[in-house]
Amino acid sequence: MAGMFNSKKCNLYLIALVIFIFVVSGILFFMYFKSQKKEKDDLRLDLVLEKTNLYSNESLDFSASLYYNKKCDGVFHYEIFRLSDVSVVISESEDIRLNGDDSRAKSLALSRLLPGEHILRAKLKCGDKVEISIARFSILQSGEIASSSKIFDEQTAKGSIEITKTEESKILEIIDSSEQNQNQALQMCDSLDTSSKDKCYSGIAEKTKNKEYCAKIQDITTRDGCYASLALEGVYGACEHIVDSYQREACNSLKANQG
Q1: What domains are defined for the chain?
Q2: Could you give the angle at the alpha carbon of 198 between the alpha carbons of 191 and 148, nearest 5°?
Q3: Is pTM, for the whole model, over 0.90?
Q4: Following CA atoms 89, 92, 51, 212 in sequence, which dihedral angle do they give, to the nearest 10 degrees?
């Protein structure tokens, strides 16, 4: 009887030991997984323009918010593209050291640039990690009214300035909301007039990096510009949808040169 009792007691100890090992292993695995999750690369870059409509005698002032959750000796590169032919008109870069949050404030003279739509593209590179952010702006001709957007110039000329501002604000709200609910934002775009729709679709395409929204744009020039801007953000296959052959060739050439 004593032998059987001792045998059962040993079995209980063995079971308890196995359970203990499983529990400890589970805790260690959880802690390892959690530490690995924390170490995942997190590289961020955001651009904010002080003004989006400027004259060539002004400067483009912008701020860039940079973040990396690890230490990094990297490169912050920024360039301006003329959207009509996807050509680089200004290109500058600087070495940076990141370990958390950082910011940069820049001012670029526009005196050498022609009137028209342009894109500021910034690239943040840390090791093999790259983050890209773009912002669109317009250089106005001398004497041109710097309205909220060129698509509203006709309304402004008719004296509907208040309506212009209201419509512009509405479009910006729709574009911002597309990050949370693309379908709802798209339905709201559909309810706008044609010129406002084009701006709305283009904004959602750039916000979500989805070239399908560019296809909804009625105006060919605006649609080509939408595809070109996505190509500058690295969206695959955007160049091939550009109608203007010269702009499409320039877009493909740029893509080939940048790998």
Answers
A1: 40-146 (2.60.40.2550), 148-259 (no CATH)
A2: 100
A3: no
A4: 70
